[in-house]
């Protein structure tokens, strides 16, 4: 009888401790909330299928600057999901025989999914709609055209305290057909933001 009482007492003492240990192991590490960020990206607009199928030519590469807003909702201890929208002004320009083509602006909106790998770091992916504005000029006439299509990106976010964060990101957008020419946009860049 003494052994039974002793065993029950030990079990009664261990169960709360085990439950507490499980609670301590399960910690919400996902960083959620409204966020706003400043972005600087190195963009490369390209055209494809000009002379033959699947050929790709660069229009040029240069910096683009802008910002992004979004909201990340925690859907578990380490997952977030939410909408985002970004806008950037481009500086790419290529000229030939007095005719110039330049990248003026880029808009993107869609859904972002994040996975926290530790309390400060997270991997994330984005998928949405991207729209690129190109401007053409021959020295006398200037006109602009916008077109869009599917866009996606992958990146890493690192938190600096409870509010600030930095990001490294690479992405691709197929922005559709400009007067019979297929146009894409590739980018790689950094961002500095705040989450509230």
Structure description:
By secondary structure, the chain is mostly beta strands. It has one domain: Beta Barrel (Porin), CATH 2.40.160.20. 12% of the residues lie in helices and 67% in strands. It contains 1 helix and 10 strands. The chain has an 8-stranded antiparallel beta barrel. The N and C termini lie far apart (59 Å). The N terminus is likely disordered.
Which helices and strands occur, and which strands form pairs?
Layout: H1 2-25, E1 33-48, E2 56-58, E3 62-74, E4 79-90, E5 93-96, E6 99-116, E7 121-137, E8 142-160, E9 164-178, E10 181-195
Antiparallel strand pairs: 1-2, 1-3, 1-10, 3-4, 4-6, 5-6, 6-7, 7-8, 8-9, 9-10
What is the overall number of helices? 1
- Topology pattern, helix = H, strand = E: HEEEEEEEEEE
How many distinct beta strands?
Answer: 10
Mean pLDDT across residues? 87
State the CATH class. Answer: Mainly Beta
Query: Roughly what percent helix?
Result: 10-25%
Strand order of the largest sheet: 1-3-4-6-7-8-9-10
Summarize the main sheet.
Answer: 8 strands, antiparallel, barrel
> What portion of the residues fall into strands of 2 or more residues?
over 45%
> How many separate structural domains?
1
Structural class: mainly beta
What fold name stands as the CATH topology?
A: Porin
End-to-end separation? 59 Å
Uncertain segments are 1-26
CA-based gyration radius? 25 Å
Shape: elongated
CATH architecture: Beta Barrel
Key traits:
mainly beta, disordered N terminus, Porin, 8-stranded antiparallel β-barrel, 196 residues, 10 strands
């Amino acid at each position: 009888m003494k052994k039974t009482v002793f065993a029950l007492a030990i079990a009664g003492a261990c169960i709360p401790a085990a439950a507490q240990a499980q609670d301590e192991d399960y910690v919400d590490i996902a960083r959620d909330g409204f966020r706003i960020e400043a972005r600087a990206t190195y963009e490369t607009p390209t055209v494809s299928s000009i002379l033959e199928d699947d050929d790709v030519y660069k229009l040029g590469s240069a910096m683009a600057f802008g910002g992004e807003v979004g909201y990340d909702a925690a859907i578990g201890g380490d997952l977030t999901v939410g909408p985002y929208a970004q806008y950037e002004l481009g500086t790419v320009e290529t000229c030939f025989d007095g005719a110039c083509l330049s990248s003026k602006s880029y808009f993107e909106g869609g859904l972002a999914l994040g996975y926290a790998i530790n309390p400060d770091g997270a991997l994330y992916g984005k998928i949405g709609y991207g729209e690129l504005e190109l401007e053409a000029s021959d020295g006398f006439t200037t006109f602009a055209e916008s077109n869009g299509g599917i866009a996606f990106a992958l990146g890493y976010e690192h938190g600096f305290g409870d509010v600030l964060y930095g990001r490294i990101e690479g992405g691709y957008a197929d922005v559709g057909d400009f007067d019979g020419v297929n146009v894409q946009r590739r980018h790689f860049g950094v961002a500095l933001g705040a989450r509230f």
